[in-house]
Amino acid sequence: MWTCPTCAQEFLRTNQTHSCLDKTEEDFLRGKSEVTVGLYRHFLEQYRTIGEFRVHPAKTMISLAKNTRFCSVHQLGRNFIDVCLPLNKVYDNTLCFHKIGHVGDQDINHYVRIYDKEDLNEEVLHYMKMAYDADALKGKSRS
């Protein structure tokens, strides 16, 4: 692991490209409704049942990382959160994703909109684990 001397973020590769920001998780949550903050915190709690990770606030999103960034919270709405799970193929035979889009040649972003704690059901948790496990494989292949 490499730690940026400017912003103290940890990365898998030395001198990995990133934006050094002084934005915090609390900056993203400031002014958001109790519902939204509660959904965000519940989402993190559920992901912690899958495995350990670090929270990386960025310019426009909050990413979760183990070896690399495996998930991001793209939007903190008035009464929902939008989460992006990069997966290695299209999973469109489900109702849990409201949007699916290709990013480059490798990952396919799958977006989940969470309005209620119950939206984090077994199926969504399954895809969350897939994104987390794919990150673990990336870390092994680069070690």
CATH architecture label name: 2-Layer Sandwich
Shape, please?
globular
CATH topology: Yope Regulator, Chain: A
Give the helix level as a range of percent. Answer: 25-40%
Largest sheet: 6 strands, antiparallel
Low-confidence stretches: 139-143
What value does the Rg take, in angstroms?
A: 15 Å
| SSE sequence, one letter per element | EEHHEEEEEEH
Class of secondary structure makeup = alpha+beta
Strand order, sheet with most strands: 3-4-5-6-8-7
Protein described:
This protein is an alpha+beta fold and 143 residues long. It has a single domain, classed as Yope Regulator, Chain: A. The chain contains 3 helices and 8 strands. The strands form 2 sheets. The chain has a 6-stranded antiparallel beta sheet with strand order 3-4-5-6-8-7. A hairpin with a 6-residue loop joins strand 1 and strand 2. It is globular, with a radius of gyration of 15 Å. The chain starts with a strand and ends with a helix. This is DUF5655 domain-containing protein. It comes from Nibribacter ruber.
